[in-house]
Amino acid sequence: MRTRRFRQFLAIDWSGAAGERHAGIALAVCDERGGPPVLVERGRKWSRAEVLAILRDLPADTLVGMDLGIALPFADCGAYFPGWADGPADAKALWAIIDQICAGDPHHGAASLVDHPDLSPFFRRHGGREGAKFRCDGAEHGKGRFRVTEHAQAAQGCKPYSNFNLVGAAQVGKSSLTGMRVLHALSGAVPVWPIDPLPATGSVIVEIYTALAAREAGRSVGRSKMRDHAALAHALAAFGSPPAAGHGAVDDHSSDALLTAAWLRHVAQDPTRWQPEGLTPQIARTEGWTFGVV
Questions:
Q1: Contact (Cβ atoms closer than 8 angstroms) between residue 147 and residue 68
Q2: Residue 141 pLDDT more than 70?
Q3: Residue 175, Cα to own-chain centre: how many angstroms?
Q4: What integer best gives the mean pLDDT of the chain?
Q5: Can you tell me the distance from the alpha carbon of 249 to that of 254, in angstroms, rounded to the nearest whole number?
Q6: Mean per-residue pLDDT for 215-223?
Q7: First vs last Cα of the chain: how many Å apart?
Q8: Would you say 266 and 37 are in contact if contact means Cβ atoms under 8 Å apart?
Q9: How far apart are CA 167 and CA 186, in angstroms?
Q10: pTM of the model
Q11: What is the pLDDT of residues 175-205, one digit of tens each?
């Protein structure tokens, strides 16, 4: 496989929380020339609508990493929502039906999906409400259903959680569902790999897992979050990056975005990252993949 030459690398730490603006959203960018990653700031908390506007107007040849799941598990049960007659057959149809059900939810929220009478049994929700269909038949653990890429994450030493999990600090479900609404709103303006093929030119969006970048920088899974610039600078050096501007404390959303932007630049030319062993055409179409997981 011939690898792409990207000019810019944008990492987005995402949030699925309710409301318009979120402290949990952070954007960082770096370019191909090797300078330090820089936070993209607007003087206030980001909204999902503002991030969508940026994605619609990307500079040429930008590799965008979004810290969310771009689809739900499919391969384990042969469907996203087994037994639901209206179940979508692939990731883009999944995005469309999520957006349709949640059309009345402001700020690209997804509360209506998890309250849907046919779909709520598939989710683990607050108050100890684990839906009867949260685990696929024969599930070996209580984390819920995994995509193939999440099994591969675990094999690399990470600790993934199911995109059907909406509870706890490790929950990724809300971020993923709101992110899928944003991807649907892009209407194909930017390819989303591997659901879309990697184009020869232009910008591309990929799913990222910030803990993977931290782990490849030499940090353990339990110490993946960095809250001071000294620790961040040490991690950035592992990817040949100068330190980011600033001293003292830094919030972990910003440090996640800064480190992962530099990591994207560091690994984007590695063809093995674009050809993971478990990625089949069917998995690409239905579940997608986490970029960097091999």
A1: no
A2: no
A3: 8
A4: 93
A5: 11
A6: 84
A7: 15
A8: no
A9: 28
A10: 0.95
A11: 999 999 999 999 889 999 999 999 999 999 9
